[in-house]
Amino acid sequence: MNIKSFWDNAVSYTEYLRDAGERLGNPKDTQEAEYAEYYRLGIQRMNRMSEKYLPNSEQVATLANKNFNGKILIISESWCGDASQVIPVVVKFFEQFEIRISYRDQEPSLIDGYLVNGGKSIPIVIFLDENFNEIAHWGPRPQHGTELLEKHKANPEEFTKDQFYVELQTYYAKNRGFDTIEELLNLL
């Protein structure tokens, strides 16, 4: 896989937000029209997280000691609930690095290399060195979010999909990106 070609075709976070608004206002196809509510929620959550997230000073110091000087490629779609909580945090925390976003559904061969339990779960955050070699990758959600999903899958009648979504979004709102950054820093 030539990850540099995906990097070259990826977009900035600003373009990603703009594209989300365009997809919401002018859907290109039936799927985009059906996902309108998810686009609206994604935009709302990304804006809120961008506004509320403040990097933790200890995590900033940890990053400085990591000597990372590469790039970050994220596989995502703006309708994704996890992505709407994770991407603004990653973008703000790692703002001194080049960050680009590749759309999951635009070219499936990229996400096919990062399947999670056989699924195309997003977001996937990929750390690259200056020569576009992968250092590490992470995703699609912090460990606590994965535990909530496993709880739902183990007993969907007792812990319904709606309960899972509410608990997951509540966790994201209260945690404000701390766990996401902590897990990413542990990979570097």
Description of the structure:
The chain has helices at residues 3-9, 13-25, 30-34, 36-52, 57-66, 81-93, 108-111, 143-154, 161-175, 178-187; strands at residues 71-76, 98-103, 124-128, 134-138. The protein is of the alpha+beta class and 188 residues long. It has a single domain (3-140, 183-187), classed as 3-Layer(aba) Sandwich (Glutaredoxin), CATH 3.40.30. A 4-stranded mixed beta sheet has the order 2-1-3-4, sandwiched between helices. Helix 2 packs antiparallel against helix 4. The two termini are 22 Å apart. The model has no long low-confidence stretch (mean pLDDT 95).
Task: Estimate what percentage of residues fall within beta strands.
Answer: 5-15%
Question: Architecture, according to CATH?
Answer: 3-Layer(aba) Sandwich
Give the overall average pLDDT.
95
The computed structural class is alpha+beta
Q: How big is the Rg?
A: 16 Å
**Total number of helices:** 10
- Terminal CA distance reads 22 Å
Q: Assign the CATH class.
A: Alpha Beta
SSE succession: HHHHHEHEHEEHHH
CATH topology: Glutaredoxin
* Strand neighbour order, sheet with most strands: 2-1-3-4
- Poorly predicted ranges: none
Q: Which shape, going by the Cα principal axes? A: globular
Largest sheet entry:
4 strands, mixed
Helix amount, in percent? 55-70%
Q: How many structural units, i.e. domains? A: 1
Number of strands: 4
Protein name: Thioredoxin-like protein
InterPro entries: Thioredoxin-like_sf
Pfam families: Thioredoxin_9
Organism: Epilithonimonas xixisoli
